[in-house]
Specification:
The structure is a single chain. This protein has about 190 residues and is of the alpha/beta class. The protein contains 8 helices and 6 strands; from the N terminus they run αβααβαβαβαβαβα. The longest helix has 18 residues. The chain has one domain: Isochorismatase-like (Rossmann fold), CATH 3.40.50.850. α4 links the parallel β2 and β3.
C-alpha cells in the first residue's frame, strides 16, 4: 500500500505532464501494434483531459537538408524522407486548442526545445511518456528527463515501434531505471 501511495504522489495530476511523442501518421502506419496502441493512447489522453493533466505533443520537424545533421542523414538514408509521404507529418491524434505542440528535430525532447523551461515554469516534476518509437525518442527523452531530475513514467502499452524486438528490449532496459506502468495502472493511480 505504501508503494501505491508514493506512486500516487509522484503522479499528482497537478505536477504531471502527459507527453505524446511523435504520434504522426507515417510513424503510426508502421508500428507493430497499431490498433492496440491507438486504443490505449486515446484512453490515456481522454482520462488525462478529464483530470486536467496538461498534455504536450511533440512533432518531428525535419530541418532543411542543408542543415540536417550528417549523422542523421547517414542513419536515415534508406528511409523515405518524411516530407515525401503525403500527410506524413500530420498528428494522428488531434490536440485541443489549449494543448501545446512542440516541434523538435532530435531524438530528445530536451535538445533544441524549451520543453524543460516550460515544465519548470509550471512546477511539473513528472513526465508520463506515450508515443513512437520506444527505443528511440521515448527512451532517449526519458533518460534525459531522469538526468534532469524529473520522474519519467513510461506507459508501456501506449508506446510502440515499427520493431517489436527493439521496443521490448527498450522496455526491458528501462524497467530498473524508471517507472513503467500500463495505461490501466496509470489511470487507476490518477483516479
Amino acid at each position: 500500500m505504501e508503494a501505491n501511495s508514493e506512486l500516487k504522489s509522484i503522479l499528482n495530476p497537478e505536477k504531471t505532464v502527459l507527453l505524446i511523442w511523435d504520434v504522426q501518421n507515417m510513424l503510426v502506419s508502421n508500428i507493430f501494434n497499431q490498433d492496440e496502441f491507438l486504443e490505449n493512447l486515446k484512453k490515456v489522453i481522454s482520462f488525462a483531459r478529464e483530470k486536467g493533466i496538461q498534455i504536450i505533443f511533440s512533432k518531428i520537424t525535419p530541418l532543411p537538408e542543408k542543415f540536417e545533421s550528417p549523422v542523421r542523414k547517414y542513419m536515415m538514408k534508406n528511409r523515405p524522407r518524411l516530407g515525401q509521404v503525403p500527410n506524413a507529418l500530420d498528428l494522428a491524434v488531434e490536440p485541443l486548442p489549449d494543448e501545446m505542440v512542440i516541434p523538435k528535430n532530435t531524438a530528445s525532447m530536451f535538445i533544441g526545445t524549451n520543453f524543460e523551461q516550460i515544465l519548470r515554469n509550471a512546477g511539473i516534476t513528472t513526465i508520463a511518456f506515450t508515443g513512437i518509437a520506444t527505443e528511440m525518442g521515448i527512451e532517449s527523452s526519458a533518460r534525459d528527463a531522469s538526468n534532469r531530475g524529473f520522474f519519467p513514467v513510461i506507459i508501456t502499452d501506449a508506446v510502440s515501434s515499427r520493431n517489436k524486438e527493439a521496443h521490448d528490449r527498450s522496455l526491458e532496459n528501462l524497467k530498473n531505471l524508471m517507472i513503467l506502468l500500463s495505461s490501466d495502472e496509470i489511470i487507476s493511480l490518477w483516479k
